Amino acid sequence: MNAQQLAAFWTVSILFVITPGVDWAYAVAAGLKGRRHVAPAVAGLLLGHLLAVLLVAAGIGVLLARYPLAQLALTCLGALYLLWIGIMTLRHPSVPKADDGATAQHSGHWLLNGIAVSGLNPKVFLLYLALLPKFVDSALAWPAALQMVVLGMLSIGSAVVVYMLVGVGAQLLLSARPQAARRVSQCSGIAMMAIGTLLLIDLFL
């Protein structure tokens, strides 16, 4: 794979990563709960991205093309999960908290929720489904699946930086502003609910 091919893919994929969405909302929520929550939350988001890359590289796109009901079910499940996370965030908005020894007990919660938020986000999966195959070079000796994994890891590497900056930035900027932090957290919940609702509307209308 040449540098031009990698640069072209990175340019397209980074636009997705830097666009605020449910991933940003989740990173912000983690940051407001305490800086120690950011790393496991971001790790979960990235594992969700990795799962999507591996599924596409394994040929799941072919199966979805054959069984549109499977794609419908995936999208519906993801939309309902985003709605649930959004409602919970709106009902219990995050406020800045000092990190202490107890925060480590909840790392698994943030990790698993991050995997679900990212892995069940249909837009993440469909991004890779639509994007990765277009950058596979059939002239290379590398298998197409390996090329997809390499490209996916490039995108995930960019996401690490962006999501960490979002999470830590939210904690630093809002740590002394509890009311502003609460409003930002509520907006994050509304954003997740809106994305889930729009996905459901797009499915059934």
What this model shows, in words?
It is globular and about 55 Å long. It has helices at residues 3-17, 22-33, 35-57, 60-66, 68-91, 107-119, 122-131, 144-174, 178-204. It has 205 residues and is mostly helical. 79% of the residues lie in helices and 0% in strands. It has one domain (3-204).
Low-confidence blocks of residues = 100-105
Query: Tally of extended strands?
Result: 0
Could you tell me how far the N terminus lies from the C terminus, measured between alpha carbons in angstroms? 42 Å
Q: Give the topology string: H per helix, E per strand.
A: HHHHHHHHH
The Cα radius of gyration reads 18 Å
Percent in helix? over 70%
How many distinct helices?
9
Notable characteristics:
205 residues; mainly alpha
Care to give the gist of this entry?
With 205 residues, this protein is mostly helical. It contains nine helices and no strands.
Lay out the secondary structure.
Elements: H1 3-17, H2 22-33, H3 35-57, H4 60-66, H5 68-91, H6 107-119, H7 122-131, H8 144-174, H9 178-204
